What does this fold into?
Amino acid sequence: MQAKKSLGQNFLINDAIIQQIVSLFTFQKDDLIIEIGPGRGALTSYLSKLPSNLLCIEIDMDMHKYLDKYESDKCHILYNDILQTDLKSLINNYHYHNLYVIGNLPYYITSPIITYLLNSNLSIEGMLFMVQNEVADRFCAKPGHKEYGYITLVIDYYYHAQKEIFVAKNNFNPIPKVDSAVIKLTKKSNKYNIDTNKYFAFLKECFQFKRKTLKNNLRKYDFSLIKEVLEEHHYREDVRPEEIPQEVFIESFTKLNSEK
It folds into this structure.
């Protein structure tokens, strides 16, 4: 069966890498794993052997011929677009301890899927995703790295992000134009008492012009308040946003809102 370009299908064909991916978390009998885009079942074949319950969500109905054999009491296949799936209602049918999400994500829709999961209000213990290598660098970047930006901080707010496995393009069929990487997201226990919608809107403004300083990006704010926070953490007034860690952004946002 030919891969469908319109769905961004590139099938992982290296069993050693698949086994590495599955080993990145220790799954228990009372866990639930959601696999996004199982495709021909390369990863499903291993996940279905684990003691956990498995729910696979596949957009391509033509994958029936590959996936039907994995259907069982603890493995179910749903044919639907993940972005059109009410996950909260769906997983109410399961009794589970920890929830995990795994997927080999099409490059063109990686960020929308991850954003959708972050906004789903589900308590997801951990996620494993195969993504474009450059995207993995962006998601897992640290302050000072050129790829560090808005989406890095949104993910970091909820999860520890780690780039785990580099996957060269020749491990896929068909071979994509770029290399990939597996990222591991592990849920953080710390919770901040802030309005996340307003905070993320603030972050978006901080990074609206990548080459500008934080001060230039936040002209409509009382920057003297932010300057106080920056100085406490030994940052210059002309600092660029990609140099600043999450905690300093949160402290700046909190100070701005406490002065209103």
Observations:
- The mean pLDDT is 91.
- The first strand starts at residue 11 and ends at 12.
- The beta strands are 11-12, 32-36, 53-58, 75-79, 99-104, 124-132, 159-167, 172-173, 180-187.
- Residues 5-187 form a domain with the Rossmann fold fold (CATH 3.40.50.150).
